Each structure stands twice: as structure tokens, then as C-alpha cells.
Amino acid sequence: MNWEDLQFFLTIARSGSLSGAARVLGVNQATVSRRLASLEAQLNVRLVDRLPRESRLTAMGQQILQDALDIEAKSFAIERKCLASSTAVRTKVSITAPPILARHFLAPHLAALARLHPLVQLSILSESHVASLSRLEADLALRLALPIEDTDIIKKVGQMRFALYAGRDYPCVDDPQQWAFVGYTERQTDFAHKRWLYDVIGAKRVACELSDLSHQYEAACTGIGVAGLPCFLADPDPRLVRLQSSFPMLDLDIWVAMHPDSRGDPVVRHISQTIAQLLESIGLGLPLVSR
User: Fold this and answer.
1) Nearest C-alpha neighbor of 272 from the set 106, 88, 85, 78
2) Could you tell me if 245 and 257 lie in one domain?
3) Of 14, 72, 180, 252, whose CB is crowded by the most CB atoms within 10 A?
């Protein structure tokens, strides 16, 4: 049995279609179809019903799905333990973070992190989906919400405070009733900052919509409207002024997470500790007494 074919089957099961699996795997749909057919031929059983708009697991496909997931989990466990082995040579560390932290915290401090381990390549992931540590999509995770995987080792390392800001020349700075806002597009799913921002906006006008908080920051600097921005980013910017509001402001905890198998990895552990120190150096870290 070809284990790579089993990975194609798992991706089809997760994505719900051959075309979706092809996008995830970075191959064409014909390749996915061929690998699935190969697996079914090896096992002499049909695993997937190929429908016009979806790919639905057969009864036998449903039965073997959990076994396939267990095999995948064991495979990742072997890789994690080997990576964290004291005899392994670590050549790359991947750090996943929300785009706002990847762009405005990790990227400006890459040189400081690289100096710790000059032979280790740093890879910063700032994607919309939450990277899985158990599936080796990243070695470390910086998050603004508690990790969703129960296996993650987590530590609260900081807090990001938000306030309302506008360009210094914004004409309605002193009149909250006239404020127009910089908001999110409808494509963004529900999350803490979006919920808070639209509670602040209420029935007021949204002047423009942007999908990313960093883009909202740049838009606010042009004077188009009011944005809810991280204080560490907006306070030092001379183009912006913090607005007074009776509405409660937002505080988001910053968490660092690693998989338990990485506890013995000195490189990952050291980079994690340095990230906490860098957060403190720019005012985002927790006081030492609270750690």
C-alpha cells in the first residue's frame, strides 16, 4: 500500500472535493483523481463517490477514515520526536503568528532572533488559518486567542491593547457622532477584534472596508476614518492621534504555544523565551511578577 496515496485520500476527506484537495496539495485535479484511483485499486474497494460538486466518502471510506487519521498522527509524532532529539541538527524554525504580529513585531525583530542561532533559517507564517503544531505546520505559534489544540503547551506572554485612532487632520476628531470608520469586509469570519470594532461602530458609517488590520492602520493614516488599532503600533506614529471614547477598549492576550514534543528542543525553547523578552521590550510583555 502506498502511504502517499493515503494522504491524498485524507486531503479529499478534509476538503470535500477533488478540486479542493488539489488546491491544498498544490497539484492538478487529475493527479488527485489518479492517486485516489490507485489507492482504491490497491485496496480493492471504493472509498469516495465522485459527485458533480463534491466528493463524498462511501460507507467503507468513512470506516477507514479514523484509521487513516491515526496513521497520520503517528507519522507526525515520529517526525516531531526526531526533530526535537538532542542529536538532531535544527536547520529551520517556523513561527506562525497573526498578520498584525508577523508584520509589525516578528519581522522588525528577525535580526535579533537570527543572531541567537545564525545557522537556523527562520520562517514566519502569517496566514488566515490557524497553523497546526501537531501536524508540523509550524514549530512555534504566537496567538491572540487560546490555542485550539488540547495538546499544545501554552504560556501567556503579553497583552495587546487597542484604542481608536484617526489621522491628525481628520476633521471630526472631537465629534464622535460624526466619526466614520475603517472596517472589515464581509469575508472575514467572526473574531474578537472584529466583534469589538463593530460594537463600537454601531449604527455609524463605515467609510471603507479592508480585510487586514495592517491595511486598516495604513488607511487610518490617510485620514479616511477612525480605526481600532493596537496601541504599540499607533501611539508612536506621528500621523495618528488617539481618540477619546466612553466605549470600553479592547485588550487581547498574547499566547505562545509549542507542541509537547518540542519541550526538549533547545532551539525552539530559546527562541520562545526570546520572543517573550522582545514583547516586553516594546511594552507588549507581561511584568515579570506575573509570569
Assistant:
1) 106
2) no
3) 252
Percent of the chain scoring above 90 in pLDDT: 58
On the question of pLDDT at 85 being above 90, the answer is no
How far, in whole angstroms, is CA 165 from its chain's centroid?
25
Which CATH number goes with the domain that contains 207? 3.40.190.10
Tell whether 61 and 197 lie within a shared domain: no
Predicted TM-score of the model (pTM): 0.73
φ and ψ of 155, to 5 deg = -150, 130
Confidence of residue 58 (pLDDT cuts 50, 70, 90): very high
Distance CA 95, CA 106 (A): 9
User: In which domain, by residue range, is 204 found?
Assistant: 159-251
Which of 58, 83, 108 lies at the terminal end of a domain, its last residue? 83
pLDDT exceeds 90 at position 207 = yes
- Looking at the predicted structure, is the pLDDT value of residue 287 above 60? no
Beta bridge partners of 228: 164
Alpha-helical segments (H) within the chain: 3-15, 18-25, 29-43, 59-83, 99-101, 110-116, 192-201, 213-221, 231-234, 266-281
Query: What is the DSSP code (8-state) at residue 285?
Result: B
